[in-house]
Write the structure tokens for this entry.
Amino acid sequence: MAKKLEQLQTVVQERLGERLRDCDLDADRGELAIEVAPADLHQAMTTLRDAEGLRFDMLMDLAGVDYAAWGEDEWFTDTAEGTGFSRGVQGNNFARLGITGIYGVQEITENTGRRFAAVYQLLSVELNQRLRVRCFCEDDRFPVLDSVVDVWNGANWFEREAFDLYGIIFDGHPDLRRILTDYGFVGHPFRKDFPLIGNVEVRYDEQKRRVIYQPVSIEPRVLVPRVIREDNRYADRKHREEGASDA
């Protein structure tokens, strides 16, 4: 498996050349992942489909990703106390409370060019090999990538889903519209700065005799799960209880 992945890595590097931004080989997991620039996305995908030694004729999946605050965690379980985990005591994730967005008031105006990305899972049926391709959008405020529907027809609904949930625009898509949320839905629910309680709620109005939208009436809340685990703080008590039951 490792040798086959190394051979695939060599072919990918030769075929894509300067269009290849990054190439990561994980032999332990049997995975090869690459990154291409937005300007090179369409040409790179066409090469991956057609080039000898690649022949990735199937797009198995396409998923949007929001890397905002990537690597930051508010669950510090190593400091858990009897009163609950850190998130239950004092959360530091603005998106959870729907206050200012994941970046905060100042940073949200900055453009990192590394927030939104599309990840493509490719399969070559002919050569029995897989490849993961990632491409970041250059503009965080208006994320745009080229559509690959003309490369793989199966990308049609995948791109609509990424647009619906993350707000990624796929330039050249024949019918880019929402596919999961309501027609009048505001925002993109998988973005990390989208409030967990949502923006609106619906109910049936007896007077108007129809379903209406209204502001969310519930307050933001934190749900702290109860975790049962082996813990040396309770080992002595458990031993005493077992000893008493044996007696």
Notes: Residues 28 and 113 are 30 Å apart (CA to CA).
